[in-house]
Design brief:
With 336 residues, this protein is α/β, with parallel strands linked by helices. The protein folds into two domains: 6-55 and 94-174, Rossmann fold (3-Layer(aba) Sandwich); 179-313, no CATH class. It is 36% helix and 21% strand. The strands form four sheets. It has a six-stranded antiparallel beta sheet with strand order 1-9-10-11-15-14. A five-stranded parallel beta sheet has the order 3-2-6-7-8, with helices on both faces. A two-stranded antiparallel ribbon has the order 4-5. Strand 14 and strand 15 form a beta hairpin. Helix 9 (237-249) runs antiparallel to helix 10.
């Protein structure tokens, strides 16, 4: 199990020619699972194609072609832009999973999936009409990712389970290239199943619905459905040594140096004018910046702790998922 570089709730798009079926499905699905319905395939295609342009991730990668040959140039990735995806109110409107009926008058479900094959959305054929041979052929052609029969007694539970699974797969694929870049530096933990299990359990226990890697200090920003942010700071043994050396070179109090040396504290110096590390301005007030680290034994030893993330790390209050759901549901009622 690997962690994606970022993840947040997304839209599930339901396409079926039966408006009554769509209303029933939308009502029965988990209320935390935002969805958008279409009974007209042309309207669905137009919306999906527009969503690709609307939801491009604002990441910049710079290539140093001044000092190196094009095939040997350095790549600079602005990591701060990753957690700032959380500042985009429409991030939750990103379509990640399509649930499509097979038998529809304008085009059948497989023709629809073929029309959006270039999009990164995962696709589920959810139908009572197509036989398994058609579904297997579509799967082998890469047109669909799952096939569920409407007549299955556990169809709804199975659908919700597969949507959750495919949403994770969506973000894993979306961040694959980014992850390959950042794990070369301080983000080895993204590929460590032990740390991934800790993140998964934290999200379940504390109700986090979003996460993004954080640049300085190294870690993960978690956000719950109400928009509350927490930073999971993650340090390796090497990182803990660096914390100690910076504090020592900045004439930190002996009490802090001893605590760092003995791995009793993990500090996050979060003042607006700082860089996350100890500075002389902190002085003897270092206790209020520290937490007792927990240890995760994976491919290497990780020291981690949760901290509240001050508002100055964001340009404005975050648009929460709870607010999005409320606005989305109201908009759906008005459209209906």
């Amino acid at each position: 199990m690997q962690l994606p570089v970022y993840s947040h709730p997304t839209l599930t798009v339901l396409v079926d020619d039966s408006d009554s079926f769509l209303r029933s499905m939308s009502f029965q699905l988990d209320p935390m699972l935002a969805n958008k319905t279409f009974h007209d395939t042309s309207a669905a295609l137009a919306w999906l194609r527009d969503s690709v342009r609307r939801d491009e991730v604002p990441l910049h990668v710079n290539f140093d072609t001044q000092n190196e040959a094009p095939d040997q140039c350095n790549v600079a990735l602005d990591l701060e832009r990753i957690y700032r995806i959380s500042e985009r109110p429409q991030r939750f409107a990103t379509p990640s999973v399509l649930v499509v009926d097979y038998s529809m008058p304008q085009m059948n479900g497989l023709e629809f999936c073929q029309a959006v094959q270039h999009l990164p959305c995962k696709k589920i054929l959810f139908t009572g009409a197509a036989d398994e041979k058609i579904a297997v052929t579509a799967f082998n052609r890469g047109l669909i990712d799952r096939y569920i029969k409407k007549s299955d007694d556990q169809a709804l539970d199975l659908l919700e389970s597969e949507i959750a699974c495919l949403q994770k797969a969506y973000f894993a694929e979306q961040s694959e290239t980014l992850r390959d870049l950042v794990v070369l530096h301080n983000y080895h933990f993204l590929q460590d199943p032990a740390l991934a299990a800790v993140v998964q359990e934290l999200s379940r226990k504390m109700g986090f619905v979003e996460h993004y890697i954080f640049p300085n200090p190294t870690g993960i920003v978690f956000i719950d459905k109400h928009g509350k942010t927490m930073l999971m700071m993650v340090e390796t043994e090497q990182g803990m040594c660096a914390q100690y050396e910076i504090a020592r070179d900045s004439d930190a109090p002996p009490s802090l140096l001893a605590a760092l040396l003995e791995r009793r504290v993990l500090p996050f110096f979060s003042d607006a004018d700082g860089d996350g590390m100890y500075s002389r301005a902190v002085g003897d007030n270092w206790h209020r910046y520290c937490a007792a680290p927990q240890v995760c034994h994976g491919r290497e030893m990780y020291f981690w702790a949760l901290f509240e993330l001050p508002a100055h790390y964001f340009g404005a209050p975050l648009h929460s998922y709870a607010r999005f759901l409320q606005e989305h549901n109201v908009a759906g009622e008005v459209a209906a």
